[in-house]
Amino acid sequence: MKTFRLIELAEQIGGTLRGNADLVISSIAPLDKAQQNQITFISNAKYRDQLVSSNAGAIIVNESDVEFCTEQQNIIVVKNPYVAYAILAQYMDSTPKPAENISPSAVIAENAKLGQNVSIGANAVIESGAELGDDVIIGAGCFVGKNSKIGARTKLWANVAIYHNVQIGSDCLIQSSAVIGSDGFGYANEKGQWIKIPQTGGVIIGNCVEIGACTCIDRGALDPTVIEDNVIIDNLCQIAHNVHIGFGTAVAGGVIMAGSLKVGKFCQIGGASVINGHMEICDGAIITGMGMVMRPITEKGIYSSGIPLQPNKEWRKTATLTMNIDKINERLKAVEKQLKE
């Protein structure tokens, strides 16, 4: 296991160290479970009472939490402990690579182009015309279709499927069993008979994009589906054809986006939300979990629609009232009319 001197970690996050610079740290742990060879952090004031009792070798804190630490504790003072934790987690990451070198069982077309230091796992398939940039890692069982391009340092975990004519930028991470470039749900109906419309638009994914396990991003019908730089998409999401997601937007698990939706920059979409197609969501919109978005969002703000969980008896009452809302409305109007008269 790799270890780190505490001063090295402090320099990595640009923090001010108070304590033993030569302390050896092996990993990161929660505040209440960390031991002498581990570093931890506090990012929420409600956990301050755990600072004094923590056995951590070192604690990352902000200036306002320093007074709650003892003189004997090793601390690193930063502006944002949670961001510092994220940076250290990357720096100390011991996650194995999806693949090492090029497996003998990988099937690679003769005219596929591979950059420097590319790794391809067992039973992966790289089809003709595909291009892999420098330091790309393709996990076991992956499929990269014809004429698709993957930028430098992008990683695909096992069993990812990249269809034909898909463009993926650099420094992306795609988790296992994601599907990029599958057909959009495009059909015409002629007297009850469904006529399939070939989806020829492809997918364009920017740089530093992360896509969760089992998420599907459909190719566009004519123009491409577009995911801009710095977008993060969780597991089990459905991104339909010709959706356009703007820079820095975060999409939580289980979200469904219908076709031709345009999502702005820096939006946050809560888990299990369902969003209608052929409309726009403005920059900076926040949709809480289980949101059902049927109309465009034109002003930045927080939007909610899911009904919170209730005990069953209370929910039955709520449901009854909801089902009778038309009758209640009619009675209310009648009372208002009588009051006016």
From TrEMBL:
Indicate yes or no for the key word Oxidoreductase. no
Q: What class of enzyme is it?
A: transferase
Q: Could you tell me which pathway this protein works in?
A: Bacterial outer membrane biogenesis; LPS lipid A biosynthesis
Quaternary arrangement and interactors, per the entry? Homotrimer.
| Keyword line | Acyltransferase, Lipid A biosynthesis, Lipid biosynthesis, Lipid metabolism, Repeat, Transferase
* One function term, GO molecular function aspect: N-acyltransferase activity
- Entry annotated with the keyword Zinc-finger: no
Q: According to its UniProt record, which protein family does this protein belong to? A: Belongs to the transferase hexapeptide repeat family. LpxD subfamily.
InterPro entries reported for this sequence: Hexapep, Hexapep_transf_CS, LpxD, Trimer_LpxA-like_sf, UDP_GlcNAc_AcTrfase_non-rep
| GO annotation terms (biological process) | lipid A biosynthetic process
**Role summary:** Catalyzes the N-acylation of UDP-3-O-acylglucosamine using 3-hydroxyacyl-ACP as the acyl donor. Is involved in the biosynthesis of lipid A, a phosphorylated glycolipid that anchors the lipopolysaccharide to the outer membrane of the cell.
Q: Which residues form the UDP-3-O-[3-hydroxymyristoyl] glucosamine N-acyltransferase non-repeat region domain?
A: 22-90
EC number(s) stated in the UniProt entry for this protein: 2.3.1.191
Going by the entry's taxonomy, the superkingdom of the source organism is recorded as Bacteria
Annotated GO CC locations: membrane
Where are the active-site residues found? H241 (proton acceptor)
**Cited HAMAP family:** LpxD (MF_00523)
For this protein, the record's Pfam families field holds: Hexapep (PF00132), LpxD (PF04613)
This protein is called: UDP-3-O-acylglucosamine N-acyltransferase
The catalysed reaction is:
a UDP-3-O-[(3R)-3-hydroxyacyl]-alpha-D-glucosamine + a (3R)-hydroxyacyl-[ACP] = a UDP-2-N,3-O-bis[(3R)-3-hydroxyacyl]-alpha-D-glucosamine + holo-[ACP] + H(+)
Q: CDD domains recorded for this chain?
A: LbH_LpxD
